[in-house]
Predict the structure.
Amino acid sequence: MSDLRNKRIITVATTGAWPTKDNTPNVPIEPEEIAEEVYNCWKAGAAVAHIHCRDDDGKAAMIFEKFEKAVGLIRAKKDCDIILNITTSGGVNLKEEDRMRPFYELKPEMASYDCGTMNWAHTTIFENNPKFLEKLGTMMQEVNVKPEIEVFDPGMIYNAGYLLKKGFLKAPLHFQFCMSVAGGIKASTKNLVFMKETMDEVAPGSTWSAFGVGAGAMEIMYAAVAMGGNIRVGMEDNVLYRKGQIADSNMQFVARAKRIIEEFTCEVATPSEARDILGLK
Ligand code: ZN
């Protein structure tokens, strides 16, 4: 087996909760579009697909049938072994049961786990209260779904440490450092180093990935690769490929991530290698 330390996982977040067809006509919204995009991103080098679905108007929602359809269509592509990571936060102000049902019934290998409450984008409260996080962690263990611990500031890393100590999360943890979401920590190399060092102190032996929203996106991508981390790309986080240029597709982001990893003389992890790195087997 080749050395996994030299491998970097690309996660693609094709859709997210916010970008609309008005923001970019290229964002996949319907389950059929999402499944096709995920398949093509897998061909381009993505090992993990982070899945959101929308309602019939394209708005943020957690409608079970939409997830069931998208996941079913991806699983029907028999050559595609991409790791599925279903969101538990399809938007803000959604019912807890609706947030948990897709991963609980569809049993992807991973699901997102937002490790704290925040003032989201200066507009509303993104609520992940302590009891909900305990319930979410327990239910993920019940169905053997690995949480991807999304943290938007360093305090959320300490929340993860607490939940780990109490048994609601199980080591080894996998973190996603989400940077420059308004209300959270800014995307900069200095901050990424701090996040990573905090993680090492709180939960040694964890794996991690990172992305920046907006102007800091490229800096975080390069810094994460240089620091031994994994990267997430896609229209959930950025609809612009570069300043003033709307991305053609999510595949365009994956292809650039692959080039950056390879220029750094690392290799892009296949889904199978990513399963080894993340302890999914
Ligand atoms: Zn998401």
